[in-house]
Amino acid sequence: MERRLRIAALASGRGSNLAALIAAREDGRLPVEFTLVGSDKAQAGALGIAAAAGIPTIALNPKDYPTRADFDAALFGHVARSGADLLVLAGYMRIVDASIVAAWEGRAINVHPSLLPKYRGLHTHRRCLEAGDVEHGASVHFVTAELDGGPVVAQARIPVHPGDTEADLAERLLVEEHLLLPAVVGAIASGRLRWDRGPVFDGMPLTQPLALTDL
User: Fold this and answer.
1) What 3-state class would DSSP assign to 208?
2) Catalytic-role residue among 112, 136, 141, 178
3) pLDDT tens for residues 125-157?
4) Residue 21: in which H helix or E strand, if any?
5) Which of 46, 89, 112, 199 might form a disulfide with 11, Cβ 3.0–4.6 angstroms?
6) Does the pLDDT of residue 1 top 70, yes or no?
7) Are 205 and 112 in contact (CB under 8 A)?
8) Which residues are annotated as part of the binding site?
């Protein structure tokens, strides 16, 4: 039997995207093995979700390290030693040192709640509403040293309704994120999506983000 894709995840919060990945594995949609879930917050809900699923966990405190690079090296060292083929940043809220990111080129993805390149960074729902956008969405991209700036491989879109609040957008978009992220990981696990000096899908360089229906 062919070895399953081994994935590690980093998360800082409640872990809903991690839960979606685990659920996809449990119901047979996602042929992967989880090697580790790590966090910069010992109380992150994601760690409890992982532990309940029998996945090893690690939490490190950034304050215990003299520099950001030292912390990143320690945490990513745990990820590397877990044997992960792919690292998924699933709500991980820290900027990672560029030298550490470089070592994971083509092997790390992130889910971000905006239609990148719009609204990199925080408060994406608020910024979408303030701009008067009629459409919002989520993106999965390969991680590079540029914040939320790596090649986007897939996006999910939702309409912005009159009277929507930040909470409304966040709630509706999270449903799409929970479909999009497992679908992208599944495409990597199957070999349809891979990295060859850039994203390649079904043997062709990816020139624009895929929709969920493409995966």
Assistant:
1) coil
2) 112
3) 999 999 999 999 999 999 998 889 999 999 999
4) helix 16-26
5) 46
6) no
7) no
8) 15-17, 68, 93-96, 110
Question: How many of the other CB atoms lie within 10 Å of CB of 30?
Answer: 22
φ and ψ at residue 56, rounded to 5 degrees: -60, 145
Q: Is 124 helix (H, G, I), strand (E, B) or coil?
A: helix
Instruction: Note the residue count of the chain.
Output: 215
pLDDT, one tens digit per residue, over 171-213 is 999 999 999 999 999 999 999 999 999 999 999 999 999 999 9
CA gap 31, 41 in Å, rounded = 28
Give the tokens for residue 72: 């990143």
Q: Which residues pair with 139 in a beta bridge?
A: 112, 155
H helices of 36-165, in order, are 45-52, 68-81, 98-102, 124-130
Which domains, from first to last, does the chain contain?
5-214 (3.40.50.170)
Is 112 designated active site?
A: yes
Q: Which parts are annotated binding residues for (6R)-10-formyltetrahydrofolate?
A: 68, 93-96, 110
Q: Which residue has the tokens 């690079």?
A: 69
Q: For residue 160, what are its two tokens? A: 């912005």
